[in-house]
From TrEMBL:
Taxonomy, superkingdom: Bacteria
Residue span(s) of domain Helix-turn-helix: 10-55
Descriptive protein name: Helix-turn-helix domain-containing protein
Pfam families for the chain: HTH_17
InterPro entries recorded: DNA-bd_dom_put_sf, HTH_17, SinI_DNA-bd
Membrane-crossing segments per the record: none
């Protein structure tokens, strides 16, 4: 049987921010920190693979005792 290849899904910064319920500024910080890989498409457009976004570690808010 032939292998099926999946085509990666790329998101804009705005789409990634909405998916993670954070601001685009936070997405940019994650990219700058090396936490989230990003790809430049053309001169200005930055895209993020959906699978990379899903693998990004999220901080769990500390509960108050």
């Amino acid at each position: 049987m032939a292998e099926r290849r999946t085509i990666p899904v790329y998101l804009s910064l705005e789409e990634a921010a909405e998916a993670m319920s954070v601001s685009t500024k936070t997405i940019r910080r994650w990219i700058a920190a090396g936490t989230l890989p990003a790809y430049r498409c053309g001169k200005r457009a930055i895209r993020i693979k959906l699978e990379d976004l899903e693998a990004t570690p999220r901080q769990i808010p500390a509960g108050h005792s």
